[in-house]
Write a structure and sequence with these properties.
single chain; mainly alpha; DUF4064 domain-containing protein; DUF4064; transmembrane helix; transmembrane; membrane
C-alpha cells in the first residue's frame, strides 16, 4: 500500500514548522541589535506610555533577554518537530511502520504546537491529519486465487 498522502502532508507540516524557525531566527537577530534596544527604550519612555502608566519599572535589557530565550526555545522545539517529521516520513515510505509513524506524528503535533507557543499551529494541524490518516488506513487484504466468495 502506498502512503503518498501521509508523506505529502507530513512534508507540508515540516515546511510549516519551518516558519517558527524563521520567526525565532528574526527574534534572535533583533535581540543583539543595538538599534532595536534604543528604539524600545525610547518607546517605553515616550509621553504616550507615560500617560498610560509608564513602563512601571520594566528593565528593557531583561525584557530583550527574555525575548531571546523564548525565541531560542521555540526554534529548538520547531527543529525537533521537523526531525520527527522526517523520521515519520521514513517510517511511512515503503509502508515500513505506519502505526509508529502515525503515533509519532500525533504526539509531535500536540506537544510541539504548545512548545512553539502557537507559532507551529499550522504545522501541528498538518502532522495531526497525517497521523490520523496513517493510523486509520487499513491495508487491503489480498484475495487468494481459486477462493470462492460466499455472500
Amino acid at each position: 500500500m502506498k502512503r503518498t498522502v501521509e508523506i505529502v502532508i507530513s512534508v507540508i507540516g515540516m515546511v510549516l514548522f519551518g516558519l517558527p524557525v524563521l520567526l525565532s531566527g528574526l527574534m534572535l537577530n533583533m535581540k543583539d541589535n543595538e538599534q532595536f534596544k534604543q528604539e524600545m527604550e525610547s518607546f517605553m519612555n515616550s509621553p504616550e506610555m507615560q500617560a498610560e502608566g509608564g513602563a512601571g519599572g520594566i528593565n528593557i535589557g531583561e525584557m530583550i533577554n527574555m525575548l531571546g530565550s523564548f525565541a531560542l526555545f521555540a526554534m529548538i522545539a520547531a527543529i525537533i518537530a521537523i526531525g520527527l517529521g522526517i523520521l515519520s516520513a521514513v517510517f511511512l515510505k515503503g509502508n515500513k511502520k505506519p502505526k509508529a509513524a502515525g503515533i509519532i506524528l500525533i504526539i509531535t503535533a500536540i506537544i510541539m504546537t504548545f512548545a512553539t507557543f502557537g507559532m507551529g499551529l499550522f504545522g501541528g494541524v498538518a502532522y495531526l491529519i497525517a497521523g490520523i490518516v496513517a493510523l486509520a488506513r487499513k491495508p487491503k487484504t489480498p484475495v487468494e486465487e481459486g477462493a470462492t466468495i460466499n455472500y
